[in-house]
Design goal:
Layout: H1 2-17, E1 31-32, E2 37-38, E3 45-47, E4 52-53, E5 61-62, E6 75-79, E7 88-91, H2 93-100, E8 109-115, E9 120-122, E10 134-139, E11 144-147, E12 151-155, E13 167-169, E14 173-177, E15 187-194, E16 204-211, E17 230-236, E18 248-249, E19 255-258, E20 273-278, E21 284-291, E22 313-322, E23 332-339, E24 361-367, E25 381-388, E26 398-401, E27 409-410, E28 415-423, E29 432-438, E30 441-449, E31 461-468, E32 478-490, H3 491-494
Antiparallel strand pairs: 1-2, 3-4, 5-16, 6-16, 7-15, 8-14, 8-16, 9-13, 10-11, 10-15, 12-14, 17-32, 18-21, 19-20, 20-32, 21-31, 22-28, 22-32, 23-24, 23-31, 24-25, 25-26, 25-27, 28-29, 29-30
Length: 495
Amino acid sequence: MKRLLYFFFSQLLCLFFVSYAYAISWSEGTCDDKNRIYSGANTDYANRGAQLSWRKKNGDWVDANGRLFGSSPFATADINAGQLIEPVQVDITQIVDKWQRNSIFNHGVMIKKLKGIGNIFHSKETSDTSLTPRLELELVSGSVVTLLPNADTTLMGTHRCKGNQSELLSAGHVLLRFDLSEVKTNIKSATLNLYLKQKNRSQQQIGIFLVDMDIPSKLGSDITNIFSNFQKVYETSFENDDWQEGWSIGENSHIKIVQENHTELFEPFNGKALQVTLPKGQHYALNAHYYFENKDKDILWFSRQDTRQSIRSACFEYALRFSNSWEPDSEGKMPGFSGRYYDKEYRGGWGGRSSDGTNGWSARGLFEPVIGENNEYSGRIPVGTYLYHTDMGGKWGQHIVWNNFGLGMLEKNRWYKVKQCLKMNQAGQANGVIQAWINNQLAYYQNNINFTNNPQINIESIWMNIYYGGNKVAYQDMHVFIDELAIFLPHSKAE
C-alpha cells in the first residue's frame, strides 16, 4: 500500500509541474535506417533524441499494486492457438479511468508477454488501417469513441528504435499511448483492441502494465540550503567591454557586444548582450576562464591572470538564448566549472584526459544535437552537464542531460535563466554536488560525485566555454547570446 501511495503521489507531482515545463514521456521519434537516425524510444532510452534514459533496460513500468517493475498486470488477455481474424481485446477501464481523472499521468501502456513465445501485432504504421491498434471507449452517455494511438513502438534487442515499423512484437515490450485530451465525458468502459499479423501457433497470454517515467524524488526546497549563504562576487550585463576585466579569454573566442541582430531574430534580455559566434568549419566559439587561483602568465592564449583563493563551492548564473541559426548536428560544450590544472603535473579532466582521482576534473555544460521530427521535443536543444570525474570510466566525459520535468529541453529564439552550483567532494568520498536550474526551477541534482581525491585540486575556474564537438565542426555559422552573468561564492571566500 505504501508503494502504491508513493507511486500515485509522484505522478501527481509530475502533473503539477506540467504547467511549468513539458511533461517527460517516451517518444516514438525518428527511426531511419538509411540515414542512421534513431531518436525514439529503444531498450536504453525513453527518448534517445532528448537523451532521456530508462531506469532499467527495456523500459520502466508499474504494476497493478503500484510496484516499479512489479509482476501483477492491470489486465490480461489469452490468445488462442490458431487465432488470427478476431482482435485481441483487453479491458483497461481501470487504467483509462485514472488517466481521465488525472490521478496518474498518461505515459501509455506496456504490453508484456506472460506465457508463450510472443505475438506479432499490427502497429499504427500498418498499410491496412482497419488493423491499427485502437482504444474503444464507451461513455456514460452511451456513445462510443474510438481512439488510434498517437505513438507505438517495441523495445527489443538493439539501440535502434522501432517506432516506424508496421508491426509490434510482444516478444519484446510493446508501448502504446493514446491521447485522451478531447474525451471530456466520463467513461463507462475502455477496451484495447490489438490485431494479429500472423496466425498464432500456440496458446499465449499478454499482460498490461503502466509505462512509468523517472519522477525526481526532490524538487529543490530541501536541497538548496548548501548554496543559500552565498555572496555575489562578479556581475556583468555586457553593456560594454569592461566585463572582460578579471577574465582570461582565449584568442579562439568569437565574441562581441550587440544590441540587435535581425537575421538571428535577436530580442534583448536587458539592453545589450554578448553575441557568441561559432564560425562554419570550426570548433571554438567561446573559451574564457574566471580563475580562483594563480596561473602562469606566460600561457599564450590567456590575456590576463588573477590571484584569488582556493574555492570548494561556487555558483554562477547567466541568461542564455540560442539564435535562429542554432541547429547543431553534434554535441558540444557549454559554460560550467573547471578544475583542470592544465599547467600542473596532475592536470586532467578535459580533451580526452580522463580523471582518475589523482588529477583534474571538469563539469562544463553540454548541448546535444537539435531533436528531430516525430518527438515531443522536436526542434529543441537538450542541455546538461559534460562531466569528467573519478568514477567516469573511459577516455571522454560523461553526458548528463538535465531532465527534471523536461526543463533541459530548450527552444531557439527564447531567453532562459541558467544557474549552476557545485560543491567539491571530500577526499575519498563520493559526496560532491552539482545542481542546475532553468528559470529558477530545479533541472538537475546529483550529490554522489567524486570529482577528485587530490587535496591540491579545487574549483579552479568558472569556464565560459562554447565548443562544437566531438569530432564534428560547425556546418554553418551559428550564434548564442549571453547576458546577465553573475558569480557567487560562500561569504567566507567572497571578502
